[in-house]
Amino acid sequence: MNTFDVAKHVPLDGEASYAAIAKGTGQDETNIRRVIRHAITNRIFREPRDGFVAHTAASAVFLKDQQMVDWSGLCSTEFFGAAAKTVEAMKQYPSSQEPHETGYSLYHCPNQPMFAHIAKDPARAKQFGNAMASLTAGEGYEVEYTVNNYPWKELDEKGATIVDVSISFTFLERHAIFKLPSISSRQLPIYKLRLILLSHIQSRG
Fold first, then answer.
1. Helix/strand/coil (H/E/C) assignment for every residue in 122-153
2. How far is CA 131 from the centre of its chain?
3. Binning pLDDT at 50, 70 and 90, where does residue 183 land?
4. Does residue 138 register a pLDDT over 60?
5. How far apart are CA 22 and CA 121, in angstroms?
6. Do residues 29 and 43 touch, judged by C-beta distance below 8 A?
7. Mean pLDDT of 98-102
8. CA angle, residues 124, 128, 132, in degrees to nearest 5
9. Alpha-carbon gap, residue 81 to 75, rounded angstroms
10. Mean pLDDT score of the chain
11. How many CB atoms lie within 10 A of CB 59?
């Protein structure tokens, strides 16, 4: 659905035949019909009359919300295959915590961490960024719950440091630091953080 931009071949306020969608996507009509009818069981698209497809509220999102399109693309093109390789990675690398010994790496980029692989491809990186942004845009994802209900003031009074193990400066940090300016923030790749923590543990015996 995402790879072949099926939603773009169905007019928002009209309908399109399976034959027209197949031609537009460059795919076999029988396969397109099967894929769309499976999507219909999840209320994505509808079939107002035999042989024709129209949008539902769910499928229309793929025409209106690029962030959701990218989130769908991330799940289907990046994570679906990675998930299929997860058990294999667990067998091949028992107890490993290394970022390049994962289902993602086995499927997409052997011996390379996921973020390094994504960063090499601007289109992939853009899709990933938009997908992550979608997680802050909808109801229920507001950062105010964390910012307003965690005892940040206690950390602020101590001049505490927030260590971010993510790939970039997060939206949560932006809100927390704005609210409590004496808290500093520094970003560390997770493998460097692991080394720092290991060194700290060893130094304490």
1. HHHHHHHHHHHHHCCCCCCCCCHHHHHHCCHH
2. 5
3. low
4. yes
5. 29
6. no
7. 94
8. 170
9. 9
10. 83
11. 23
pLDDT in tens, 59-82: 999 999 999 999 999 999 999 999
Measure the CA–CA gap between 45 and 61, rounded to whole angstroms.
Answer: 11
**Model-level pTM?**
0.69
Token pair recorded at residue 153: 């003031």
pLDDT at 75: 94
Other CB atoms within 10 A of residue 176 CB: 21
Amino acid, single-letter form, for residue 95: S
CB-based contacts of 47, cutoff 8 Å, min separation 6: 37, 40, 53, 54
Q: How much is the pLDDT for 161?
A: 67
SS3 19: helix
CA proximity to 107, closest of 71, 79, 73, 70: 79
CA angle, corner 71, sides to 99 and 88, nearest 5? 35
Q: Report the alpha-carbon distance of residue 29 to residue 16 in Å, rounded.
A: 13
pLDDT band with cut points at 50, 70 and 90 for residue 163: low
Which of helix, strand or coil describes residue 29?
A: helix
DSSP string, 83-100: HHTHHHHHHHSTT---TT
Chain centroid to Cα 105, Å, comes to 16
SS3 173: helix
Q: Is 161 exposed, middle or buried (0-12, 13-18, 19+ CB in 10 A)?
A: exposed
